[in-house]
Fold these 4 entries.
Entry 1:
Amino acid sequence: MRFHPLILIQILILASGLPASHAADLPANALTSEPAQNRCFELAQASDPDTESACSDAIAYLSLAITLTMAEQIALASAYNNRAIARTRRRNLEGADADIYNALTLAPDSSSLYLNRGNLRLSQGRFQDALADYARVLEMTQAPWAAVHRNSALAF
């Protein structure tokens, strides 16, 4: 199942634990939340009773920023992966290789990216590299992927 990145971000905002009213009123600089972070620090230094509330807001904003940043990375890795597949089909193997590299940099724990890189390497005639990627997929997923086994046999 694929989600449009904007829908995914909306889902993540709802799942972040922020009240809906806060999610709608996120400051423009919510990805750093410096005003909330600074307020938390200043109130804590002054032993102000509002410290707990201010720091809770800072934590909520920063947690959301972390979640959104991870969602952006996943969406970008997916875009690189999809472009790599399209480039492979058009026989632009050098461009596909660069895209898979970028996708893996953003999402190094994605077994499907290693599967796609293995498929790319197989089409490049880089059989040992393809086998290494297919072995990595099997290590990561602990699942008997028929496609991995079939493509591994092709690499021999």
Entry 2:
Amino acid sequence: MTMRGTAQGDKNESIARFFSEGRFRMTRGRRTGAIGGNWRDKGNGLHQGDIGLCIIAGMGLFLVTGGAGFIGSHLAEHLLNAGHRVRILDNLSTGRRQNLAHLSKKVEFLLGDIRRQTDLGTATKGSDGVFHLAAIASVQRSIRYPLLTHEVNATGTLRLLQAARRTGVARVVVISTAAVYGDAPSLPVQEDSLPAPLSPYGTSKAAAEEYALMFSRLGWLQTVVIRPFNIYGPRQDPGSPYSGVISRFVESAVRGRDPALYGDGSQTRDFLFVADLCRALAQAMEEEKAEGQILNVAGGRETSIATLGEVLFRLQGRAFAPSIHPARSGDIRHSLASIAKAETILGWRPQTPLEQGLRQTLHWMRREEEGE
């Protein structure tokens, strides 16, 4: 930093002393005075807006909206294991307290809704960063209830961003979806591909992305948009309308039932194990160059639903003999991500091969069945 006069020199010295204590890590923001962290040490002479810095706490407090869900509960565990404190905001409409049972004494749980500004104010106050996962994530439900889907996914995200800005949150990582792409004309799909969603779910998420990026462009708040593709792993509820094909196939395989297959099985997906997603999300919160970016996070490999079923049932020692049903409205035909941008900006790559992830998911489901 360039010192300008005694006052600026004193401020720089105060900043250096504050960070040398090792409690915080510093990354530069895009606009001076636009982005501030939660500087709780009131005796240090620092104030939000003094300099263009984003403060990401080395032992920070992170809010996870939708943290009682499948991905959110894994992310909370990942953050705790990294030494952070975790606060969860969830209305339990689809999330389950059972997902947090092993973390109940380690996380702060707030029962609330992202549609209520008072709940968001309470949840964001004192938070260093926010991972925004709360959403209506079902394509089929969004087709039945498009207005509700928009209210939660688009307006709810805007309310969260406003609350985060008011309470001095350093950065918000908005978890979007590959559904914003629709049926992309060419694969692998890149982040600059024109969105063409096929459902109110994808459309509402595209709107949420634009709000997040607008806050970044205007210098109101640091934001990052993550577009996960097909995430799977333990704790994904196969009975939920939000569940993916893997969780439903896993349940059928373990229970000795023939699974339902929608379409002819030639449709493809890009699968990613949930632990790999959590690593990417944590890195998106920390990496300076990620600010204001959209990043695909996926396995980077295309797998047909039929091939998935054959591999999964083989691991369970059974033949894949699905019952065939018509393809569902709003479902994407083919999906494959380019993950080059995430590799470059985050230094991230998936680490869990599909078969390894399926083994772990099957093991979890077997234990669930034995516990009934």
Entry 3:
Amino acid sequence: MAFRDLMPGPDEARGVAIGFILSFFLHPIALIAVALIGTAIEPASGGLIALPFLAFIGVTQWLYVLPIFWLLRRRGRRALAKGVLIGGALVFLASSLCYGGLAFLSMQDVASVRRIQQNERDHPRGDAVRSSLDGTKTTPQILRGVGRPAPRIRLLQELAHPRRQRRSEQPGFDQ
């Protein structure tokens, strides 16, 4: 079957639309079947096998879409077969776009982390770095609060546990 044979004829539009809808109804049926098979194999947690099946639906759907396509085409229901194949192709495309987008976002995050790490290596700052370099305090001591806390740590401590204001510092106090 060539690619040009997939184009629906004028009298096939309804059959292709029904086949397209049929391909989307096959997904929940296949998901339930996989969960039941998994439960039959391992009663306690066998239904969880449906999760990877669902996560990779773009690829795993071809296990049931292609045989149904072949069966419909063989029985002479070419319009339905085309619709099922088109529906499967669209699910594969949507799944690929989703995972491609996630991969792109992941690559952006990795690039950002590397840029930040390089910037921190090029421009060391902060008391933890300075203290560990001059040997007065090690980083674990700073994190535990040994000795005089670093200014940022003091600020965080003051934000977490605000001290009581003196009476003269309170708003509305006039002498």
Entry 4:
Amino acid sequence: METAAIVDQLLRALQPKRILEVGGDAMAAELRQRGKEASSVQSLAEVDGAYDLILCHGPVDELPPGQLAGALDRLSGASDTVLFGMGPGSQPVVYWLREFEKRGFAPVYPFDASFFTPLAILLRRGEAQDAGSLELFAELTRLRGEVVRLREAHESLLLEALHSGQDRLHEGLQSVSRALGLPADTALGKSATALENSSATELAARLERLERQPAGAVDAILIRRLENRLSGAEKRLDEVHRDLTGMLNSRIWRTLMSGGGFVLRILGR
């Protein structure tokens, strides 16, 4: 997602006034252009000050364990709201949920932060959650990230295959036009020109025909396989979403969380 679109969602959903970006400056720069008070640092170790929202992405676990704990302490002490993005090689989602839980933060559900990075969570200072709900939320976040990556890969592969088919068809039309000695303003010549200007949406209708062409068969098979993986991930995501919603909306859970989590603290959770 483009930086401007990410910032649009941030401002619409969270309405922060003072923002710190950790791990880059692109979003902070976009926010400053919109008149917001935004600054940036490159590392967790540099976090200082007080903010309405901290945007943390990039190599979040680049520090050794001894220094990481202190950096997370500074991060959690600088804001009550953290949008935390993890890379593919990061620690598991549940690891970060537990680290933030130690510092008084809980994930905001059902907020979907995958627009920020494919693997991201919005955390706010609040009462600790049940271990079971954290595990489910971690799986929900992982699946959201997988769905985002599969959708991006599917779109990229689909467009590549369709444009490849477009190029092959265009070359064929041009070859036939030249062989027949037809000028560019003939119907066949115009078809080649129109094909060049086709949009991705118009090209999508040609996928079924592309499957029947030997040159496009491999592309089509890859696309269908990716679509099957995407469908499976989306189905699993819906299942985990229902499980977590059911847990958080259950009468037992509401009882445990009543009174500011008093019962959970008695139980030593």
